[in-house]
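Q: What would this complex look like in 3D?
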Amino acid sequence: MCGIIGMFSDKDVTKPLFYGLSSLQHRGQESAGLSIGNGQEIIRKKGMGLVTDVFTPSILEEWKGNVGIGHVRYSTSGGSYEYNSQPLMAFARGETLSLAHNGNLINYQILRTRLEEEGMMFQTTIDSEVILYLISRYYHGDIVDAIRKTMDLIEGAYAIVLILKDTLVAFRDPYGIRPLVLGKKPGEGTIVSSESSSVEIMGGQVLRDIHPGEIVVIDKSGQQSYQYKHEQKTPKHCVFEYVYFARNDATLDGVNAYMFRRRCGEILYDEAPANVDLVIPVPDSGIPSAIGYSQRSKIPLAEGLVKNRYMGRTFIKPSQEEREMAVKLKLNPLTHVVIDKKIVLVDDSIVRGTTSANLIRRLRDAGAKEVHMRITSPPVINPCYYGIDTPQRSKLIAANYSIEEIQKKIGADSLAFISLEGLDKATRIQGEHLCKACFDGVYPVDPIVL
Ligand code: 5GP
Ligand code: SF4
Ligand code: MG
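A: Here is my prediction, written as C-alpha cells for the whole assembly.
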C-alpha cells in the first residue's frame, strides 16, 4: 500500500506534484519523496514522515522541472526505514532513472537472491529496487523494451511511475491489481496517479485508467501507449481499494469508492438487519456504509464516535498495547448520543479485531444498551501478497475463529459481515474482474511463500 503520482508538463511540476502527493497521504504516512527532472538532471528528496514533514515551501521554490514523480509509503515489503523510502534512483548508460512503486512482487526473494549471487549489491530491502535494477540493466536507450524485459521476470502487483530526465513512464501489472489513473491538465500536461481524486485536485481531468499490462510513455513528442503482451489477462483489481484504501472521492477501474461503500451499507442491511435506535459509523471509512445502512433501514444515523483528525491511519503498530492506545486516541465515544441506546456500529473491516473490541467495550462503558456490529467486507481469512499489509494468518481473527466466537471476543450483541455475493453486487462490475483473495483465497498470481 503506497501512493504514487507523476506529471509531465510544459510548466514546472514541483508544486502540482506536492499538492497531488498530499492528496494521496492516506495511502502512506511513513515516508514521502519527490523526484524532479529538468531535461539535464533529476533531483530527488525523500524522508520519513508526512509530505509536509519532508517538503518545506523553500524547497518547492528552489526546484524547477517539467517532469516528476512522487511517492508516499506504507511499508509492506522491507522495514520502515529511511533507506527504504522512495522514489529510488539509478544511473545507467548515461541516463538517470527514478522510480516509484505501489504493490508487491511475489517472486522478490527469488529474484534478489539470484541477483546477489551474480554479485549485485542492494541499498534497500524493498522489492522496488529489484524492479529498478532490472529496468536499468535492460536499458539501452529504449525504455519500453527495458520495461517489457523486466515484466517478463517480475510477478505480482505493481503500479509504477518512472522518469528519465525528460520523459514520464507509467505502467501497471498484467492483472491491474493496484490502481493507476491517467489524467490531463488542459494546456499544461499529463498526470498519472494512484487515485483519480489527485488529478481533480491538481486541476486536471481524468481521462481513463491505465490498462492492466499497459506501458504509457509521455515526452515532448506526446503520449504513446504500449501493451506488454498481446493476449490479455482477465483483470483482477483489488477490491480492498474500494472497501478501505481509496478515498471516498476516488473512481478506480470504473468503481466509485463512495457509491460502492454506500451500496455495501444498503446490501448489508438487507442481509443482516438490526432492530436498533441508531446507526453509528466508525469514522472515517465506515461513514458512507453507515449512511447506506441508515437510508435503507430508515433507522437514524448518528455520530457516536468523535475522531481525532490529527491521528493517522493507525493500523500497523508494533505491539498490541500500542494498537489499543492508538484506537483510544483516535476515536472516543459520545456519551450524550449513545447513552441508553441500542446501536448498530458499521465499519469496513475486521482484521485483528482490535478496533471493534475496543470500541464496543467503550461504547458500553458510555452507556449504550446494545451494540450490534456490521462489517461491509467479508471476513478477512487470508493474507494479501500484493501490497496490502494484512498480518499473517495467525493474527487474522476470522482465520482462527468462527463468527460466533468473534462476536463473543469483541463483545457484540450480534455480528454480521457482508457476503461475497453482496460485495460483488456492490461493485457493479463483473466479480471475476476483482481480486478478493483475502476473502475467498483465490489468488490471481500464486503466492510464493519461501
Ligand atoms: P482491526 O482492528 O480489526 O485489526 O482492523 C480493522 C480496522 O482497521 C478497521 O477500522 C479498518 O478501517 C482498518 N483497516 C483495515 N485494513 C487496514 C489497513 O490496511 N490499514 C489501516 N491503516 N487500517 C486498516
Ligand atoms: Fe486486495 Fe485482498 Fe487481493 Fe490483496 S488479497 S490485492 S487486499 S483483494
Ligand atoms: Mg477504520
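A: To summarize the key features: The first strand starts at residue 2 and ends at 9. Residues 177, 238-240, 384, 386, 388, 435-438 surround iron/sulfur cluster (ligand 2) (CB under 6 Å).
Q: Very helpful, thank you.
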